[in-house]
Structure formats: structure tokens, C-alpha cells
Amino acid sequence: MKTAITLRVNGDAYDVVVPPQRTLLEVLRDKLLLTGSKQGCDKGDCGCCTVLIDGEAVLSCLTLAVEAQERDITTIEGLADGDVLHPLQEAFIRAWATQCGFCTPGMIMSGVALLEKNPTPSLDDVRRALGSNLCRCTGYVKIFDAVILAAQMQRERAAAQP
Amino acid sequence: MSEFAVVGTNARKYDGVEKVTGAGKYTADLNPPGMLLGRILRSPHPHARIVCIDVSRALALPGVKVCVTGAEYAGMKFGVFPSTRDQSLIAIDKVRYVGEEVVGVAAFDEDTAEEALDLIDVEYEPLPAVFTIDEAMKEGAPALHEAFPNNVGAELHTEYGDVEAGFRRADHVRQDTFTTTALAHCQMEPYAVLCHYQNGRLNVWAPNTSVFARRRALSNALGLELNQVHVHKIYTGGAFGGRSETFPADWIAAMLSMKSNRPVKIGLSREESIMTTRQKHEMRITVKSGAKKDGTLVARHFQVWAGGGAYMSTGPIAIGWPLAMIESTFRCPNLKYEGYRVYTNRPICGAMRGHGGQQLHFADSCNLERLAQDLGLDAVDIRLRNAVQAGEVLPSGSKITSCGLTETLQRVAEESGFRNKVGRQRHLSRGVGIGCSSMINGFNMGARSGSQAYVKFNEDGSATVFSGINDTGQGNETAAVQVAAEELGLPMEKIRLVSSDTDLTPQDPGSYSMSSTFISVNGVYQAAADARRQLFKLAAEHLECNPEDLVARNGVISVQGSPGTSVAIEKVIWRAWQRGKEIVGSGIYMPKLNLKRDWIAPGMQTGQVTGAYSFGAVAVEVEVNRDTGEVTILDITAAHDLGRALNPKAAEGQLEGFLAFGIGQALYEGLVWDGGMNLNPTLLDYKYPTTQEMPPVKSILVESIDPEGPFGAKEAAETIGLAVISATVNAVADAIGVQFNDLPLTPARILRALEGKERVNGAKTNGARKKRNASP
């Protein structure tokens, strides 16, 4: 039995028909072709599929699509404003926090959720906030640098606003 | 002002924007029209004869389009070397490990393909199996492959100098035996492959470290000409050695596409990815070292047994590579090495971060550490005393060109405060350890040992570089673009790189064997230098000067010392084209190797094995919790000799990543088995470092400026992943007085050791717990 649902992703509304067991990750990737969110394990171990639902970092592989109806979903594709990158995206490039790039979307989404709540995180705050996002390339050090740098950039951008 | 405009800067990652926006495509992200989804039925037995396979019920399921079985395997078997082709890329008559591919199915959707697997009937006749090195080598053990009745698929016996005489001259001889377990790469991207057979050509997308190696193996297995196979550029979500070979999923997807005339994608689950691509060899290593009283090594004897799983994979390299590493770290004129690569009924083991070198380094370095202690020598001093130097010719005849080993050791010892701490913090259960290693930069792959590149220009003065260079995340592409920009005198934004595509780019060895900077970037450098010569010749005519007097920066060629006398590169190109003159740079870098040197062939381990060696040292400080057995790494200082830091931040990132890998191997990681069945093939159960385990890192980049490397550069940081393992083990020994011989140092193992129940230092521990209150 399939259900017709509306998903609000990155500000756009999508009408989709899905069986109830379909996860949000599967619908994002296979139906909406938003493949930025990655499938690394499909059981909540790796964090590559992290998206924001109403501002909270959520593992989309453990979330049913039907549960995400009528809520604001943000994926990595929804962060940049045209060509202007989100401070975390910019910081990930500057700090060399991305290597193979497969964990990067999930890492960035977890970082966004952290900075929304805590604009001045300590190194320990960052470690904890990214604790369920695995990376096999970087050893995390440059990722920590990037989140701290992004927090600083965000503050600077806010200060520069009239 | 720096000597260079681009080289040596922390330039932005070339593929950074695509990776941070989610726009970069990995294989699983591809969804061409008409695509079918494939799944694979796998063997539930570690060793069995296939009696019969019936796919009729599966084919009758609505939505299932095609199946493929071993009956259709008509091509050459897969093997890394022509002499090791032992694996049909789907089981034909026998299965040799749990997870081996038996049937491939393609359907309109993945659920249907999965359902179809349940409808396939396979009758097996189980056979006796062997799981460990000892079981496999036991007299009368069941053989996996008829050609190897004792299950030893490859062996190596080499001796340089006179080892017996060397040991007779030694003042002290020490022997230890070490073991390591099989490991999983756990690349973040699970393996996936997309094949589309169209108009007589096979198009392939799959995570890889060499499109050319993949093309060759698929052309062999499918009976297609090389130019009928097009392996496309695609992002690879981590490799670490585990994406180097051709996998059964590739052949199965290709066959399913050829039979259905549709694109077919197979995405492996995390468990399948861990179990059925590649793993790291488990090893047992015996090291015997003889030294003079002052610590000078006079003779060493290594015996290595590598449990390799069901097929040969890179087995000869796994046992042969460590020899090249051992002789190039600590000088020893008399060296004997014996290696055995053993088939077992477990998943296939191949390359992983340093190949067998990582395991051998652990044994090599820990043995040396204990030798030093026996002789009452300092851990740093014994390493410095034996450290190889630039210009040295090694026992095999291979020469070291540039070498910063001594500097990396000295700086790590100094900046970590090693000498002030060692042996002084046991009352706090804290300790420090040190390790160091060498690494080759590429090796003999015959005609594929070198890398070629082309440079073409566009009418706005920008350039496009074509190189086979492969980047699985390291930053190889950025390095290539930086080097091209520097040599051409263009800003990086004016350079576009087309890479890693069998139709579009020239030959390259691939991004394994630590060759990308030294060889592939060097190929780009040669092509850019060729283009630069052409530009300068034309610019010199225009400026009426000598080409030797010209420099290029920021898109402008000018006379050195008189920047007013200049011409834009854009203008040089316009003028050339108007006069019917072409400007195309082309080049190749071929390292100076002995192309007859072989990993295992008797008597063939002599001559130049690699074009350059890199070096590194690591100091680790740990604290051990005596109640829980947990080891916490407090601090790491790591120094790597990378020739020149083309991009310091990128190099640091490599170094930190290698540290995390090595820490995992030292403390946490290991595949756990029940016979042939793996018990921890998930990222939750297979534990590797998270953000919580990663300690603060002090990175030191040592620049020895290699005479052959592009702007003097060599590979970045592989030595660190080796050295950190022994440094960690030695630090734990310093903290609690227990020397471990088996990895990983899990809390259970540490507690057992503290209770005197663990095999350490060649024997059971004896009351190490008593030392708890001992004064330092």
C-alpha cells in the first residue's frame, strides 16, 4: 500500500507516492534525485545521510519519509545561496576539511545544526556534535578547524550586515 | 616574495565546491534513463562445490529482466599479475568464502531484485575449510586451489649479504614474534558499479584508483578489446588500497547490461562492501635482529606469513613490499627475508594503506625497541644510529636519493619532549613511544610505471590539462593543477584538469603505491614544461630576447628583472595560431626503475625498486586506565619528509588521516570471526576512530627536495600511518611496562596483560600489575 505525501525540501514542495517503509534518504535520493545526502551504511552508524528537519540534525536513513511530511527538510543542496556558499561549506574548502567528500554533506549538516544552537562552540562542543559522523580520510582535525572557522565567519558575516 | 606563485600555498581544493555542495557525483548517485538495479546472490558456505543452480523461478518474477551465472564466464580469470589469475569474477564450480558471488540478477527496482535472490535455487556440496594460517598450512589440509596443494600461493626467499656471518658478529641477538589481524578499509562510500553496454562498447563507472587497470581486467574477463571499454571519471569515496582491483560486481553488472541492453547499477550494502571487496592481510611475523653493543644492526632475519583469503589478489606485493620498506628504514647489510602468502576460506585480502608494510613496520620497530632496551640504549638513539641517509645504496642495490629520516626523528623527539618523558611517567600510567618508517613512491608496473599528460590552450589564455591522475580524496588533482599553474605562469583558476578517464586521458599508474605526487603530478609537470618552452620561444621572438631570460607569472611572460618588457600568454597563443603554429604541451614522467625487479621471483629482488623514498617519524603519548584497560592517546607529534610541500594544508590532512588509520589499527580495529563467518561487518561493530578518539596532532613537514620530484615533491604522509602503530605500542609499554606482540591493544587485551594472562614479549606476562605503585 502506498501513500501520497508532500515533502518540503529546501523550500520546495514535492508530491510523492511512497510505500510506508521507504526512508527519507531513499526518497530524497531515488525519487527527488537529491543525491547529495549519501548512503554509507543504511543503519544509522555513519552519519553520511544527515539532513536537517526543522533545524535538527537527523539521520535520514532512520527516518521514514511519511514521518517527514509537513516539516522543513534541509539537505546539503539547500545550503548555498546561489553561488554564495554557506559559511560551513566555504570553511570546509578553506580548511581542507573535505578529502574524498563522501562524509562531507553529513558532516556539514551536523555542523550547521551545531552552529544554529551554539554560535561559539569550543573544540569539545564540535567533537561531540560531530560524534556520530564518521570519516575515514581526514582524521577529523581539519573538520574541527572548519567548524570553528565557520563559526567565526558566521559572526563576521552577521557583524557586516547593516 | 616566495620563489613560487602557486606551489607551496594552501590553494583551495580543486574539487572542493562540488564536494561541499553535494553536486559531485559518486557511482551510486548516477541514475541513467532505463537503468536496472542489480543484486548478487552470495555463497553461504566458506568452501563448497556448486552442484547446480536454477534461476527459473527468479526469472519468472515480474520485474526481473536478466540473470547471470558462472556458466557464462568465458573470459580470462582475474589476477593482479599474469601469473596470479586465479579468480573467475563469479563462482563457476566452487565457492571459496562466505560471500562469494554465485548469481547476478537485474530488475526494474532493487526490492524486486532482492526478492528474486530468494527464488534462486543453488545446491551446494560443502567441503572442509581452512580459516587460519596454521590450519591452511597443516599437512593434509584441504586445498583451495588445485595448483597449490599446501595453500601457499606465493612465497619469497631473499638474502642480501651473509646473515649467518652477521649474526655471529653480533654482540646481542633478539627475536620476537608478532601478529596482526585482518582489517576492513571501511571507505565511507560502499562499493557500487554502473555498466552500460551500448553500440558495442562497455561504459563503466565505479569507485577506483586506476581507470586503466580496471579497463584492462574487464577487457580480459569479457573478451572485449581495450578500446571497447570506457571507464569514466567518477568521484571515489575513499580507497586506501581497497579500490585498486576489479571486482566480481563489475563483471556481473557488465554482463547484466550486455544481456539486457540497459544500464545496470549494483550498489553493495555496507556488509557486502566490507566482506566482498578487499580486506587487509592478517600476518604472523618473526623478527630476529643482531646488533653491536652500540646498537648498530649487523644482521636481520624476517619471516612473514600472510593469511590472504580465497584468491591471490595483491598477495605477492603484500609479502614483497615490506622488504623494500625494511631495507630502506634501518641500515642493515645482512638481511634475510622469507614470506608466505597463504590461501584461506575467508574474504580476499589485498592492498590497504602501506600494504604489508604496516604490519611489518609494527614488528620491525617493536623488535628494534626491545633490542635497544636489552642493550640499555635510548629509543631515539638506536633509530638515529641505523637510519638510512641520502645517497646511500641499499643492500638490494636500490639507491636513496633524498632522505629526511634523521631530521624527522630528531624533530619529533625534540618537539614532543620525548627524552624528558620516557620512563618517567609510569606512576601516572602514562608513557611515550616513538616510531619511524620509510615509504616507496611507486614501483615497477612495466609500461604502466610512468604517467603521461597533455596541455592545450584556449584563446583566452587559459589551459586544459589532460592527465590520467587519479584522486580518491588525497588532493592529487589540486597538486597537479598547482604544479601546472606554477610552470605555465597561470593562476589556478585558468587551468582545467581532465583526469582519470580511459577515453580522454593518457596512461597513468593509478593512485596506489604512493605514486601520484611523484609520478602522476610529475607527468603533468613535464607536459607543462614542454608547453612553457613553446610559449617562451614564441614570446622571445616577440620580445626580441632569449627564452632563457623569460619568466611567467599571472598569465604574463616577461623578461626577468624588467617586468615592463612583457607579453600576455593569451597574446602569444593568438599570434601562434594566426601563424598556423600549434602549441600543445606533452610529457611523460617515467621513474628510473629496474623494470626486471620482481616482488617474489627468485633472485629478482635487486636494483632500483622505486624512484624516491619518503620518510617519517611519530611520537605518541598515552595514558592507560588500569581499571578499564582503555588507552587514551593524549598527544601526537608527527613529521614526514615529503620532499616539498606543494600544498601544506593538504599534506597535513593526509598526515592526520594516516594517524587516525594507524591509531585504529593499533588500538581498536580487527575483524572478528566464527570460522569463515565475519561477526562485525558494520560500522557500529567494526570500530575505527571517531571524533572522540582523535587526539591533538602536531604536524611537521620536512622538505628534503627530491632531485626527481615535481618541484622536489614526494608522496605525503604514508610513513606516518606506519610509524604511529609502533609508537603507540611502545608508548603503552612505557606506561605500564608491558610489551605487546599482538594487535590491536583492546581494553580486554590490556586487562588480560595486567592480570598476567596475555602473550606479551614472547611469553605470558608475570605480575605487571604489581608495578602499579612502583616509583618511576
Uncertain runs of chain A are: none
- CATH H-level homologous superfamily name of the largest domain in chain B: Aldehyde oxidase/xanthine dehydrogenase, molybdopterin binding domain
Helix content of chain A: 25-40%
Write down the Rg of chain A.
Answer: 16 Å
Write down the overall mean pLDDT of chain B: 96
Sequence of strands across the biggest β-sheet of chain A: 2-1-5-3-4
In the CATH classification, which architecture of the largest domain in chain B applies? 2-Layer Sandwich
**In terms of per-residue confidence, which ranges of chain B show pLDDT below 50 for 5 or more consecutive residues?**
762-776
Characterise the protein shown here.
With 162 residues, chain A is an alpha+beta fold. Chain A has a five-stranded mixed beta sheet, sandwiched between helices. In chain A, a hairpin with a 2-residue loop joins strand 3 and strand 4. Chain B folds into three domains: 180 residues, Alpha-Beta Complex (Aldehyde Oxidoreductase, domain 3); 247 residues, Aldehyde Oxidoreductase, domain 4, CATH 3.30.365; 145 residues, Aldehyde oxidase/xanthine dehydrogenase, molybdopterin binding domain (Aldehyde Oxidoreductase, domain 4). Chain B has 19 helices and 33 strands. The longest helix of chain B has 28 residues. The two termini of chain B are 51 Å apart. The chains are: A alpha+beta (162), B alpha+beta (776). At the A-B interface, helix 2, helix 3, helix 4 and helix 5 of A face helix 1 and helix 17 of B.
